[in-house]
């Protein structure tokens, strides 16, 4: 097998995040469920934008954030997602290329606008997300470049892709190309809301070997196995997965293989500002380490380090060099 050009390629929804601070009372007034993610139409997106306070715009999307983290660690990255030929689409493309990621998907012309997510961050750092997918739904198998996916060590998919049938087709095409080239395929469950809708599909992907590496948090995992017991869910996951990692917030994460389950402590963060992107950046550190041949415990620790950086400020992507932070913390990256 030839050496891959890219360490990690992310495929997912290309979304511009619009973040604003909000009090809990505001969420109640707007009938928003704290900590949730919901899909909204353009009308509701505009209504929330008009209601929110001072905001910042940041290119986001789960897989896009993960790609940004891998790039910050010094990895070679690429991203596949659909934006529109509009102002937000141009911003998104610029942001991806500015971090060194390859992003060559043709923008959508004459269709829905670029996706955006209205994110309200409460004083405890929790984020409540309201996503308008727009142009993301236009991702199709035609956007999958076989050479690109065959030339990547690990392809990383976000579960949110399952909301669009053509994006699912793109997923299967890309996964097939990756595996035929001897590469690995990974998936994040994305959100309990997502798991509830597509549990059966995700379970089949895991059990039939389409997914080599699975990412989840505690809530998603319990939803996945339809149990209130975290330990029960972990044991079930061990039977189904090749490699999986489950984050449990400040308690760290668990690395799960058929050989066993190992707990890895979290990086200590004194002041949590905004948890947006925490899971995405954890995946960055983990995937980068696996792509570089490091052991799984080190991968989980590096994931926690990256997640700890992103929750220390507003926005879903690193504000400091992760490779410098990792080296300062004693990692050989």
Automatic annotation (TrEMBL):
<dbReference type="InterPro" id="IPR052700">
    <property type="entry name" value="Carb_kinase_PfkB-like"/>
</dbReference>
<keyword id="KW-0418">Kinase</keyword>
<protein>
    <submittedName>
        <fullName>Adenosine kinase</fullName>
    </submittedName>
</protein>
<dbReference type="Pfam" id="PF00294">
    <property type="entry name" value="PfkB"/>
</dbReference>
<dbReference type="InterPro" id="IPR002173">
    <property type="entry name" value="Carboh/pur_kinase_PfkB_CS"/>
</dbReference>
<dbReference type="InterPro" id="IPR011611">
    <property type="entry name" value="PfkB_dom"/>
</dbReference>
<comment type="similarity">
    <text>Belongs to the carbohydrate kinase PfkB family.</text>
</comment>
<feature type="domain" description="Carbohydrate kinase PfkB">
    <location>
        <begin position="59"/>
        <end position="319"/>
    </location>
</feature>
<dbReference type="GO" id="GO:0016301">
    <property type="term" value="F:kinase activity"/>
</dbReference>
<dbReference type="InterPro" id="IPR029056">
    <property type="entry name" value="Ribokinase-like"/>
</dbReference>
<keyword id="KW-0808">Transferase</keyword>
């Amino acid at each position: 097998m030839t050496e891959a050009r890219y360490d990690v390629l992310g495929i997912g929804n290309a979304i511009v995040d619009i973040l604003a601070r909000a009090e809990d009372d505001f969420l109640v007034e707007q009938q928003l469920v704290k900590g949730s993610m919901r899909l909204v139409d353009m009308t509701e997106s505009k209504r929330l934008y008009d209601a929110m306070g001072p905001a910042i715009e940041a290119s986001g999307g789960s897989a896009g954030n993960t790609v940004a983290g891998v790039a910050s660690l010094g990895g070679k990255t690429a991203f596949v997602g659909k934006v529109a030929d509009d102002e937000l689409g141009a911003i998104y493309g610029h942001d991806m290329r500015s971090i060194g990621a390859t992003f060559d998907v043709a923008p959508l012309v004459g269709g829905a606008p670029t996706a955006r997510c209205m994110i309200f961050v409460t004083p405890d750092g929790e984020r409540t997300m309201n996503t308008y997918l727009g142009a993301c739904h236009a991702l199709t198998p035609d956007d999958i470049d076989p050479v690109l996916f065959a030339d990547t060590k690990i392809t990383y998919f976000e579960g949110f892709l399952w909301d669009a049938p053509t994006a699912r087709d793109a997923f299967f095409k890309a996964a097939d190309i990756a595996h035929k080239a001897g590469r690995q395929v990974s998936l994040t469950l994305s959100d309990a809301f997502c798991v509830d809708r597509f549990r059966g599909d995700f379970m089949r992907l895991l059990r039939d070997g389409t997914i080599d590496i699975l990412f989840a948090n505690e809530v998603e995992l319990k939803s996945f196995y339809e149990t209130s017991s975290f330990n029960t869910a972990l044991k079930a996951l061990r039977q189904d997965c090749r490699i999986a990692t489950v984050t449990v917030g400040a308690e760290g994460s668990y690395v799960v293989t058929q050989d066993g389950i190992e707990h890895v402590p979290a990086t200590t963060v004194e002041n949590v500002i905004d948890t947006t992107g925490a899971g995405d950046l954890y995946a960055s550190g983990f995937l980068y380490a696996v792509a570089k041949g490091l052991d799984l415990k080190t991968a989980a620790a590096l994931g926690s380090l990256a997640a700890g950086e992103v929750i220390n400020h507003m926005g879903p992507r690193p504000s400091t060099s992760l490779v410098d932070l990792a080296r300062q913390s004693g990692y050989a990256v």
